[in-house]
Amino acid sequence: MNQSVQNKLSNVQVDNKLTKDAVDFAVSSGLLLKSRNESGKVVGYKHVPFVLFPTIISKDSLEFLSQIQSDFNTLMHVVVQDQQFLIDSLEGVADEFTQRLLHIFKEVIASERSMPPELAYVRSDYMFDFDPISGTAPPKQIEINTMSVSFGGIGTQKMCDIHKRVLGKANLPDLVLQLPQNPANQKVAEGFVKAWKLYGNPNAAMIFLLGDFETNTYDQRAFEYAINNINPEIKIKGVKFSSLPGRTQLSNDGTFFIDGEEVGLLYFRAAFQPHHYASEEIWKIRKDMEFSRAIKCPSVGQQLFGSKKMQEIFARKGVVEQFVGETAAANIRRTFSGLYSLEMNEEGDSVVKMAIENSQKYVLKPQREGGGNNIYGEDIAKLLREIGNDSRRSAYILMDLINPKPTPNYAICGGTATKEEVVSELGIYGVYLACGDKMLENYAAGHLLRSKPKDQNDGGVATGVAMLDSPLLV
């Protein structure tokens, strides 16, 4: 059936008319990025890169990954509540950024302050590991993003609508029925509104904390509009994270203010990379946020959960089973690829040797969210020859390289179509809202599909390497 569907897509006559119609529809739907010059000034706009046709994805895989997202949410919540486990897991990671976040986490615990409700908006990303012998391609988890979560606004239902139109124009109405609805933006917005309401002050603002050179503004705007469609009285403001020094205040009762205005919810679209913390004052403000009674998305504990070291620890025998039920643990484990520790012990020594000798089989991961951080191929061997005998190596984990099967498609970038062999990455959005031990909300909130040329190791949509996509279920 897969080949039959792929043949239908491959037989479509792709011309300038079809491409232009798709681009016009994308632009009218708000699939836009800002273009900035080297100084950061906005000099124009461009459409988000996308692929012309949807990519064939197993219906069973999408349903399975959506079903277990609530289990991943539960795992995250329970682990963050088990404060000592999180501390013990990360204390030996030789990464200054991780250690500074961990220090804030410890300080908040030591203060014994009453913790506000926690809101999580996450995305668990997978690729399909193709076995040419069996012909199977099970989904394997790449990572869980706890802070660097994007394209829920314009990369989900809006992208699906583009592909509905393309298939209609290509006279393939039967395939339109195989495009799943994907109201991720609405589902995530509902979680944010419930969290904001829990804060208890209808006059308190919801703050989007942004990076300095945002290009993905329209994705953020789509999310803002979805929140205000549910409750137009919520005051939402975008504030650059780097601009906060001199503008914030933490009162004795834990109320957090920006420019004198009380904040009920802090939503981080920045603060996940070391360069986002350009001064000690920024670090102090981040600590004040954690000490405040404002609801954080994510809290520092939730952000630490997304560390690659935690991903490796969960893959160890018996660890996931400590926190979730037997069935949930088994389902979660089905998505794990090979993950290896680089700690300073005999096991770590053997992993370093293995990685240097077979570097093409692995990916080396630092403790970072966001694209462009991973190390591949000969660069792995080169780095480990330099740091493989000292504690610097513990800042990384090693993971088996996932090998998805390429499929033909057309990359639509800058208004033109280029035929490419692409590989795809499926993300499942998750939301949970908790107050102490009690989970108030816990659900999967839609999906995100991105594709990139098969020879590209790493890269994001905003940089033009990857492209938005949507699944065609078979």
From TrEMBL:
Binding residues annotated for substrate, in chain numbering: R123, Q220, R450
GO molecular function: ATP binding; glutathione binding; glutathione synthase activity; magnesium ion binding
Sequence intervals crossing the membrane: none
Catalysis performed (reactions): gamma-L-glutamyl-L-cysteine + glycine + ATP = glutathione + ADP + phosphate + H(+)
Occurrences of domain Glutathione synthase substrate-binding (ranges): 205-304
UniProt keyword list: ATP-binding, Glutathione biosynthesis, Ligase, Magnesium, Metal-binding, Nucleotide-binding
UniProt binding sites for ATP: 143, 308, 365-374, 376, 399-402, 425, 452, 458
Binding sites annotated in the UniProt record for Mg(2+): E143, N145, E369
Metabolic or biological pathway: Sulfur metabolism; glutathione biosynthesis; glutathione from L-cysteine and L-glutamate: step 2/2
Enzyme Commission code(s) on record: 6.3.2.3
UniProt enzyme class: ligase
Entry cofactors: Mg(2+)
SUPFAM superfamilies from the UniProt entry: Glutathione synthetase ATP-binding domain-like, PreATP-grasp domain
Cofactor note: Binds 1 Mg(2+) ion per subunit.
GO CC terms: cytosol
Domain of life, per lineage: Eukaryota
Family that this chain belongs to: Belongs to the eukaryotic GSH synthase family.
Alphabetized NCBIfam families for the sequence: glut_syn_euk
Subunit structure: Homodimer.
Name of this protein: Glutathione synthetase
Gene encoding the protein: Gss
